[in-house]
């Protein structure tokens, strides 16, 4: 799973890295200000830190599909929901935790057909664990803290007036490694 995440991150960087530049970020921020004249980049990053990222990550580690459906584009939701649904069908459940979120950064931006898109990078410290119906660990380790590097593509819904609920997760990439203290 870690190797696949790393491959996805590398591929994402190769593809997306050539598509974005500082001028595209400026154009994206200008477009965002047309949609929301009060848009502020620093406030957006604070909203990511206190609202957007925690809501989505908590829903992911708890397997809360209803919340994920609200925050994600359909294709992204399907990617995230598939292993959760498979675990549930197999009688397993997620016993993971988010311990910390840090180093949130706005990496890139682009105006796309769905609306303005911002690429946000951050790190999370997580415990990742899946248990069976007898509460036995079948995947992960409840005592091992993992550092997960995330790259999220967030798209602003131009039709949503409330800026706090207007962002949707369009793409996700993650790679993890054990956190050594």
TrEMBL record:
GO CC entries: mitochondrial inner membrane
Keywords: ATP-binding, Membrane, Mitochondrion, Mitochondrion inner membrane, Nucleotide-binding, Phosphoprotein, Protein transport, Transit peptide, Translocation, Transport
Entry's localization field: Mitochondrion inner membrane
Tim44-like domain: residues covered: 25-174
UniProt record, GO biological process: protein import into mitochondrial matrix
Keyword Nucleotide-binding: yes
Protein transport is among the record's keywords: yes
Coarse class of the protein's main subcellular location: mitochondrion
Alphabetical list of InterPro entries matching this protein: NTF2-like_dom_sf (IPR032710), Tim44-like (IPR039544), Tim44-like_dom (IPR007379)
UniProt topology in membrane: Peripheral membrane protein
UniProt cross-references to Gene3D superfamilies, sorted A to Z: 3.10.450.240
A GO term, aspect molecular function: protein-folding chaperone binding
Free-text function comment from the UniProt entry: Essential component of the PAM complex, a complex required for the translocation of transit peptide-containing proteins from the inner membrane into the mitochondrial matrix in an ATP-dependent manner. Recruits mitochondrial HSP70 to drive protein translocation into the matrix using ATP as an energy source.
Assembly and interaction partners: Probable component of the PAM complex at least composed of a mitochondrial HSP70 protein, GRPEL1 or GRPEL2, TIMM44, TIMM16/PAM16 and TIMM14/DNAJC19. The complex interacts with the TIMM23 component of the TIM23 complex. Interacts with SLC25A4/ANT1 and SLC25A5/ANT2; leading to inhibit the presequence translocase TIMM23, thereby promoting stabilization of PINK1.
Family of the protein in this entry: Belongs to the Tim44 family.
Protein name: Mitochondrial import inner membrane translocase subunit TIM44
Lineage: Eukaryota, Metazoa, Ecdysozoa, Arthropoda, Hexapoda
GN (gene name): TIMM44_2
């Amino acid at each position: 799973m870690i190797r696949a995440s790393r491959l996805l991150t590398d591929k994402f960087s190769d593809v997306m890295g050539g598509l974005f530049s500082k001028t595209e970020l400026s154009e994206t921020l200008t477009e965002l200000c047309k949609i929301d004249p009060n848009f502020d980049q620093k406030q957006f990053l604070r909203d990511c830190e206190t609202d957007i990222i925690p809501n989505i990550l908590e829903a992911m580690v708890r397997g809360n599909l209803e919340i994920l459906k609200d925050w994600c584009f359909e294709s992204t939701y399907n990617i995230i929901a598939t292993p959760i649904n498979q675990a549930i069908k197999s009688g397993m459940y997620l016993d993971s935790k988010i311990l910390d979120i840090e180093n949130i950064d706005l990496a890139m931006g682009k105006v796309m057909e769905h609306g303005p898109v911002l690429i946000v990078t951050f790190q999370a410290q997580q415990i990742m664990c899946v248990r069976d119906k007898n509460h036995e660990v079948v995947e992960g380790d409840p005592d091992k803290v993992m550092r997960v590097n995330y790259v999220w593509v967030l798209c602003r819904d131009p039709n949503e007036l409330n800026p706090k609920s207007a962002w949707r997760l369009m793409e996700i990439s993650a790679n993890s490694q054990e956190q050594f203290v």
